Each structure stands twice: as structure tokens, then as C-alpha cells.
Amino acid sequence: xxxxxxxxxxxxxxxxxxxxxIIGSVTLFLALGLHKNGLLYIGNIIYWLSFGFxxxxxxxxxxxxxxxxxxxxxxxxxxxxxxWIVNLTNSEIISAKIxxxxxxxxxxxxxxxxxxxNIGYIENSGPGLEILTTRKGRSYTFNCKDPQTLINQLHKxxxxxxxxxxx
Length: 167
Prior knowledge:
alpha/beta; seven-stranded mixed β-sheet; 3 helices; 11 strands
């Protein structure tokens, strides 16, 4: 059984963006004096539609990326962010290998796509796993604090283990 859970460092940046957006929009609302015109004033409606939608998007992003988890129970492997978890059974995994992940090569942190076949759950630069699956030939790359322990458990379950490489 392998279980790992962490909070990505960039979550705090998303949380800060949400806080600044809410404080800034309320401050601007009060500074413009829109609160004096009544709740159903068309200016209030337009104001909150224009500022409320981005704030809701930021809140959803902060929630989705608030927790990064990896779990393997011997039959099922699940990994990803709270709002973007991938669940794989042993029969869907073709092979696995330990990789060294460079987040710059993936184009940033978070949920990343290289083409349509390579999907990354990139939390930082460092060790991770690359899993080749039967799902449309896709491979998933994700960070892992102790990849050797996880790869050993996958090997015990009969999954092919390949040589290391850099991603």
C-alpha cells in the first residue's frame, strides 16, 4: 500500500490571488459608491458579473489544486489533484518507469498536456513516475516523493518496469 498526500507550493499563490481579488473588488465597489444605488441597480449587476465570474474561476482553481495525492492499494493506482484525479487498474497499466521530471520542459506546474498522448501532473522538478496505459495509448507522468517504493509495489503486482529516463 502506497499513500502520499501534499499541498502544492503554488496553491498558496492561487489562494493569494483569490484573497486579493475579493478584497480588491469589494474595495472598488465601495469606492465607486455602487452600494448606495440599491441591489438591483444595473451598474451593480454588471459590476458583479464582470468581477464575480473571474473570482469564482480562481476559487475553483484553488480548490482543484489544493491537494496532490497518490494512492496504490495493490490493484488500483490513483494520482493527481483534488479536481483532476486519474484512477487506473493494474490491467490498464502496460509499464512503469522512474523518471526525473523537469517542470520547465513540461511548460509549467499543474495539469499539463504534451500532445494528446502524454499527460503530466507536475508538482515540481524532481523524481516521479511515467505510466504507459492502455487508455488510448496515453502515458501519465507525475511527481512522487518515493518513486522506488511505488515502483517496487507495481512490480510485485506484475507490472513491467522499464529503465529510468529524464522527462
